[in-house]
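Supplementary Data S3. Sequence and structure tokens for construct A.
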Amino acid sequence: MKLDMIIQLTQLIHKLTAQNKWTEAFDELRTLHYPDVANVLEQLSPDVAYQLLRRFEPGKRSHLFAYMQIDAAIAIFQLMNHAEAVALFEDMDHDVRADFYNRLSETERKELLAGLTPAERDDIRKLAAYAEKTVGAVMTSAYVAVQDSLTVEQALARIRAVASDAEVIYQIYIVDEAGRLSGTLSLRELLTAELSKVLRDIMVQDVVSINIDEDQEEAAKLIARYDFLALPVVDNEQRLLGIVTHADALDVSQEENTEDQMRMGSVSTDFPMATSLKNASIWLLYRMRVFWLVVLVFGNIFSGAGIAHFEDLIESMVTLVFFLPLLIDSGGNAGSQSATLMVRALAMGDVRARDWSKMLAKELAVSLLLGLTTATAVSVLGFYRGGVEIAMIVAVTMVIVVMVGSVIGMLLPFVLARLKFDPASASAPLITSICDGTGVLIYFSIASVFLDMPSV
């Protein structure tokens, strides 16, 4: 549903609920897809959203919660009675409820666990215990696994018995007596096989899996690379512990892309990614942005120091000041472009750390062409403002600052990756600040040479 339709529907729901027409309001929601219903509920006050949500069947409530922003979902959850909260958790997907469980207070957790079966309590505690950003934190335990000693007929009977609780049944995982992942079969392969065949004799043994302690981004990359519907998760002994679904991988990719964008904007990512910007507090937004902003303020001192160093030159040729923002911004822009391309290439695995020298040679050639093109344009303006001498100064400076900025933007992600930092930390503001200080020194040094004046 389009955004304008969501807004109109939300306004209608507001109007109907204000008039105490709850049945009519619910009728407007009940035929929508889950993401659209969740979007509308997020726009309403928690008490109104709760009254509408409880009119849905219990199984549908859990699906709606999976699509809601976590802060909005918790606000509604806190209005539920104990029986409603327990029923909601029983119907939730295993990985979703584990993540939701981690957002609750200690008191809420104890009250909730008291109403669940021992098996469900153990499952939630186990999944919720894995460290954030690891594969274990995003995997689900709702999968289908059968022993390799079973026949096809026995395996199909087992699958029928557990299929209703599994998130993915298109791929069947096969384990040995110790629970180690030994093979896999698609549901199609299983249905078309002879019923008397033993699984170990027909299974595909070359299984792509991932360790539970790996970074969740690696799971998303593997699923994208092999076009999997799900990826099996194992421990150090190759015992099957769960799966990461294609939907979970999409969520991980979206979260990682969001973090990269925030880093590229010099915004801290040490805060919950699920927090809605609309509902975030002023204090939270301040803390997310203040650190890097202060760091960059001190970084820009070098630009001021460079200008102060060439005060005599500036006083004798005021025209130079006109071109200063244009030139140093061009270096920063070129560096930001280069860094953006390189961060993306490193994240996608298209470029490796060992490729830096090859990429440097290519970047020097590209930046030279870019510098010559922009220098041609700026030299015309330089000639108009100050004659041939100024035109030469700004043209040469433009070529050099664009090349230097591009090389800095290209190399910084490699350096950060080598130091085990996220390459996305080579953010546009950081590169711009570095290029600003460098550009000032380059510009006035070249001007000193052309104007035959000492720089000190």
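Construct B, processed identically:
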Amino acid sequence: MTFCSDQPLCLNSPIPYFTAIPGGLSPCKSITVSGTVLPSAQRFYINLRCGSDIAFHLNPRFDQNTVVCNTLINSSWGPEQYSISQAMPFSRGQGFSVWMTCEDTGFKVAVNGQHLLNYNHRLKDLPAINVLEVGGDIQLTHLHT
């Protein structure tokens, strides 16, 4: 696992990419991830990590034409939450910007400026959520934590 903190990123940033979230999460803190979906993409993910747990897993799935969210606690995934938007907000070969805001009760997620979903916190120790991980079939262009 390699941790990097250079932002904006060079176009050849390694995937998966890890970076610290200074001070961990707190209400009103936002994280932005921008990149380009690879033309042959099947899936990619954005994880907000707390040690070996994943507090928030955002997983666009082109093979299912949906976005799935979940939480991994003690090596066990919880129930999947599917976005209820009318259309898949990501497109193969296209750029994207994901904006995640931490609130008291959960995360708000927008893609390319459009609200996508709300996700209730399943891990409550927000300051302990201190690593951003991005991987899968994308090329990163910018992160802001």
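The chain has a mean pLDDT of 91. The CA atoms of residues 39 and 145 lie 27 Å apart.
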